[in-house]
Amino acid sequence: MTTDDLPVGFSTATAAARPLHVLDKAGLGTWLEAQPAATRAWLASQAFNAAPGSHALLPGEDGVAGAILGIGDPLDAYAHAHGAGALPAGDWALAHALEPAHLAALQLGWGLGAYRYTRYKQGARAPARLALDALDEEVRDVLAACVRVRDLVNTPTQDMGPEQLEAVAREVATAHGASFESIVGDELLAQDFPAIHAVGRASHRAPRLLKLQWGDASHPHLVLVGKGVCFDTGGLDVKPADGMRWMKKDMGGAAHAIALAELVMARALPLRLTLLVPAVENAIGPDAYRPGEVIATRKGVSVEIDNTDAEGRVVLGDALAHAGELSPDLILDFATLTGAARIALGPDLPALFANDDALANDWLAAGERVRDPLWRMPLWRPYLRYLTSNIADMANAGSRMAGAVTAALYLERFVPEGTPWAHLDVYAWNDSARPGRPAGGEALALRSAYAMLKARYAS
Prior knowledge:
The chain has 15 helices and 20 strands. It is α/β, with parallel strands linked by helices. The strands form 4 sheets. Strands 7, 8, 9, 10, 11, 14, 15, 16 and 18 form a 9-stranded mixed sheet that branches. Strands 1-6-5-2-4-3 form a 6-stranded mixed sheet. The chain starts with 9 loop residues before the first strand and ends with a helix.
């Protein structure tokens, strides 16, 4: 392994790497007992106590002789993420051994902290590099999945429309020996995906359904579905300027689903995998679908369009209906679906809806284990009344009440009864920068989704 083979922020161990001590408040006291008086005095003069998110440089005869990284929870990757940006550029090697789980969290956090989106602009400075004898292979794959989400969401729409999203999914399929097909434009009507076509037909970029298949037919069948609205104007119910500004991120659900599919294949989980991504642009044009129209769906459910800006659930309905036709063991969907979920839970905590308590509990428990949390919300079926239509089987919206719940209830209508299903309403975005969490695209509950699948199926 060479440094060129490693992700950004890592290097191979060399004698030139400076020592790095990773300590919490309790560990600092023990460490200090073994240090010379000058070192103790140096840290005391700065009132350094190894608080979470802190660091201290240690002086030497020729400059910086080493550093301390102050952390909190040793199993939280983000507890270590400040290291790549806070320490001076160059190579840093652990000065002491860590427990395997702590070492994995350090490696992942360091990689997340070293991330820079540089397609159009170089980063302000190179991150400090963690020098290793070997990078944990699972950490490498999990980090790559998180980076995949960030890169896809950060890419502006002119370079990440439906056709470019297809190219990424096709590349992922090829890399892992999966089959791939794309149903494009009017072929969606011919193959009975009318709702996807209705939402995407106004754009000069043809709507499409992306489908990847991989794995042994004897294994449990997992279907991943991701909302791929590559830009959302709101349609004829047009968004205001501030609401439209960051709508390149409205394919964040697709980014999560693609990255999770890639991670499942990279780790060779014993699953039969299908990935479905309805990829569209919700545009304004002469052929845009209109408020008040009644559209057909693959499920046979007629839908009155109350609001063209509630388009994500419309395209997902056709994809979920197809997912159910495959008789899978499990369906997971990811979508940047509602502002209501952000109002309820904020940007860092995705809203989980599930029709199966065991599935929900498994995902929640995995979130606690890997420090990648989510929060379960209710499928409160009495609120189906908010989706009542006088002329169709249901409306796609209709009330400002319980917006995240009603969106999930809409999706549930397209899932076969008895099929375990979970829906993640995810923000996929950081509004501002924090250590390890740069402003822009973000993977949320992706690591816990993988941990849940691994726990359920790898054994």
